[in-house]
TrEMBL record:
<dbReference type="GO" id="GO:0005524">
    <property type="term" value="F:ATP binding"/>
</dbReference>
<dbReference type="GO" id="GO:0004467">
    <property type="term" value="F:long-chain fatty acid-CoA ligase activity"/>
</dbReference>
<dbReference type="GO" id="GO:0005783">
    <property type="term" value="C:endoplasmic reticulum"/>
</dbReference>
<protein>
    <recommendedName>
        <fullName>AMP-dependent synthetase/ligase domain-containing protein</fullName>
    </recommendedName>
</protein>
<keyword id="KW-0547">Nucleotide-binding</keyword>
<keyword id="KW-0067">ATP-binding</keyword>
<dbReference type="Pfam" id="PF00501">
    <property type="entry name" value="AMP-binding"/>
</dbReference>
<feature type="domain" description="AMP-dependent synthetase/ligase">
    <location>
        <begin position="57"/>
        <end position="486"/>
    </location>
</feature>
<dbReference type="InterPro" id="IPR020845">
    <property type="entry name" value="AMP-binding_CS"/>
</dbReference>
<dbReference type="InterPro" id="IPR000873">
    <property type="entry name" value="AMP-dep_synth/lig_dom"/>
</dbReference>
<dbReference type="GO" id="GO:0016020">
    <property type="term" value="C:membrane"/>
</dbReference>
Amino acid sequence: MGCGVSRAHQFMTYSVEKPDLTENNQGQTTVRRNVKYKDEFLMIPQPGITTLQEMLKNSVAKYGNQPCLGKYEGDNYKFMSYHQVNEEAINLGNGMSNLSLIREVQEYKHYKLKLIGVFSKNRREWMILDWANILYGYTMVPFYDTLGPDAIPFILDQTNIETMFISGDSTKSLLQCKEKYKLKNLVLFDPLSEQQIFELKNKGYQLFKFEEVIENGKKSNIQLAQVLPTSIFTLCYTSGTTGNPKGVMISHDNIISSIASTLQTDAKIDSTDVHISYLPLPHIMERWLILNLLFSGASIGFYRGDPNLLKEDIQKLRPTIFASVPRLYNKFYDGIKAKINEVTGFKKQLAERAIRVKLENLRLEAKYTSALYDKAFQGVRDLFGGRCRLMVTGSAPIRQEVIDFLKIAACCPILEGYGQTESLLSFSTAVWDPMSGHVGGPAANTEFKLVDVPEMNYTSLDIIDGIKAPRGEICLRGPSVFKGYYKDPEKTAEVIDAAGWLHTGDIGLITENGGVKIIDRKKNIFKLQQGEYIAPEKIEAIYNGVQGVTETFIYGDSLQSQIVAIIVPQKEFVEKYAAEKQIQGDFQHLCNNPDIINFFKKNINDYGRANKLNSLEIAKLIYLEPQPLQTFGCLTSTLKLQRHLAKKVFANQIEQLYKNQA
């Protein structure tokens, strides 16, 4: 993979048009598909594998004695084989049945779901439970701390879960919930203190040890469930952006078709690969990746749960595949560049030349390695364990200078992917492509189109610098699109139309080679660099309640880790405060005064926390605008904020705030 390609590959194509006479192309582009699968979707990875249950059976038969799931024990990683994991999962499933931990069947539409919760950081036991659920037809509902104290009871109420597998540190969040609803059984991954046990039992929970459930399962042999392709594999709750979270119903055939499509990408996963799992398993990206690895017989080692030990975990495991999100890649980038800047003399000249030459080769020929200059980056390769052959990034966009530098410094490709919880992998880049800053072409199980968004001036007929550049909302269709939001048909109908198109809310541009570049967001939500969604309207409503604030515009950039707040302050309030503090100047100058800006920051922080805003929703980057927003023409006739216009109006201020951030 790292041998590079010729310049001719620059002109390869990601997608082709698929004219569809049933589609009305007015106000939208023609439907496009993967260039290799333009006539039919790729549905399964191989004959006989239509469910995850069939997939795991196949992997055990094929890779039985090979290392499967690893855990840090003693001073290194120790692995259970595919046979051992499968046996433990069978015993766990038997024990869950014997102890009546799974009894209630939730019926929704034509689905009959046996739901079970899990609340823990990544660990081997988490995936053994997932494996058992696949074999016995149970549907996993993952919980995680960033859902917030209000969301956890909401999910418990909506799902009527009776049993949850839980780690010791996650019991704290559970105890903070006022209502437990039907949840009564907790299966503990970790030993607890006497005080923890007392508090949980006092709240009415029945406690079981994970190991005890497995031992109990050895007493019997329950028949595996009949799992269908349409059976629901998981309810993946998205962290709510406006109101309560939504339970995304993902089926076995959703995942299976996505695994089949991944085989057609340049990832080329095989049984020699090793992966370190530290990205949160409740988010679909990491779980999807692990299932791909299990199909191919690869090995997965789990970090120890402490981000401060991740570097050491990587050195011990030495992964061949490394997946991350832009926020962490940015940290690697900053750290590596800082070390290079410390070098002086001949070594600095050599490093600068190596960077310059390798970047030229990357951008001209998609070449990742150099017999002459790779030695200059051995320290970077060692940072990732020394044998990483492929990196993956997703969740949010990544800056071009960051990804290009890491490609030449790590001496391996970095594939950029795009997908949502509702669609799994939808787009990915290719090794042959020398250009970064886009998400590549559609997966082999996906077709897409762009629909005009006239209110934002994005259309399928757009021309930029004399070149056709169709723009619009990305709509997806294919076997990986989710089955709907659990018990929420209204929200489902908002995103999936009558023709089966998933409306993503993301604005895309079709590149010359048939790829897609994400350029904007249609809905009034956005992601920060951490991959967390922000709902600006909710934040603005709270900020407008802060003393001295009359109007607010919240902006966030997915390449940045903080939000920006454009605040229109109340003139009399500012002038009174300035007089008390003996600050001189007219209103314009007062709005630029650091002491007054810091005063508003403190008020916003105090009021925001009192109104349960999290740290990402409390702005540290604030610009005080003396003129009302209506002055700039970015409000509608009904005084609603037009965000795309406000973004243009305050572009310079936003840029300056991000540039000057600490």
